[in-house]
Design brief:
two-stranded antiparallel ribbon; alpha/beta; 8 helices; five-stranded mixed sheet
């Protein structure tokens, strides 16, 4: 029978060529330990003391800013023990529809109306001073799948969406009506006329209701990559902490000036 001879030279050779396997095993053990510890700690926190905020749309590239916002909320709204702010990068819904329509026309041999930049002759926007980089289609697709799974599993308490996506979900009853809290929230809204524009008549509504408010007054995420301009902030209809969600919504709109 063949026997492996273990000596100093064989051990050195083994460590020289297989050291990375031990490094992977150590890192994997640490990761599993941290994940297990976090899950155990999370179970100790009551459900009504946890909250999730989802930033849907732009890609978030500075998590330190978001972590700081999360910490500030926990320091000011002491009824919460855990708050996660989670980014879901997805392309703008209207842009996706336009791109699909253009692709269909191109496939059928039709010309597409794409505005050209007067200076370069290239397709582009009129104001090119600041442009968000075009989102990778694969990243956007993954974001769409993640968003559908999260809402389908009734996860998350507060969401920020682009306006078109907000209207789609509002019509399907995804959000909690905010009509009774207009007086509380309106002082932080830049353009109060938008409140009337954001009223949506859902499938089960007798009349239009306010399911979200403009998020453009929120400057807490400036510099993080997430642009609140044109976004709508909403509270999910299925949240089990509506009062705390309203407190956090007011805190966000006031940029941390309103404390509880």
């Amino acid at each position: 029978m063949y026997q492996v001879e273990i000596n100093k030279q064989s051990v050195q050779n083994h460590m020289q060529y297989d050291w990375w396997k031990y490094l992977v095993a150590i890192l994997l053990t640490i990761a599993i330990w941290n994940f297990t510890t976090m899950r155990i700690e999370d179970r100790k926190i009551p459900k009504d003391a946890r909250m999730e905020i989802y930033l849907v749309g732009d890609f978030l590239f500075d998590n330190d800013i978001v972590d700081s916002v999360s910490e500030d909320i926990l320091n000011n709204i002491t009824s919460l023990q855990k708050l996660d702010i989670i980014n879901i990068p997805v392309a703008n819904l209207t842009e996706q529809i336009k791109k699909l329509e253009q692709n269909e026309k191109t496939a059928m041999g039709e010309k597409t109306d794409v505005p050209e930049d007067e200076n370069t002759g290239q397709a582009g926007e009129e104001d090119s001073a600041v442009k968000q980089p075009e989102m990778d289609p694969q990243l956007s697709y993954m974001g769409e799948q993640k968003l559908a799974a999260i809402i389908g599993s009734r996860s998350g308490d507060i969401f920020l969406f682009e306006r078109d996506r907000y209207e789609v979900y509002a019509k399907n009853g995804a959000f909690m009506p905010l009509d009774d809290n207009v007086d509380r929230l309106s002082p932080y809204i830049k353009n109060k006329d938008e409140l009337e524009e954001l009223k949506i008549k859902g499938e089960e509504d007798d009349q239009p209701k306010l399911y979200g408010v403009p998020a453009d007054s929120i400057s807490l995420f400036d510099g993080s990559g997430y642009d609140t301009d044109g976004k709508v902030v909403c509270i999910m209809a299925y949240t089990n902490i509506p009062d705390k969600s309203m407190d956090v919504l007011e805190w966000l709109l006031s940029n941390g000036k309103q404390t509880k």
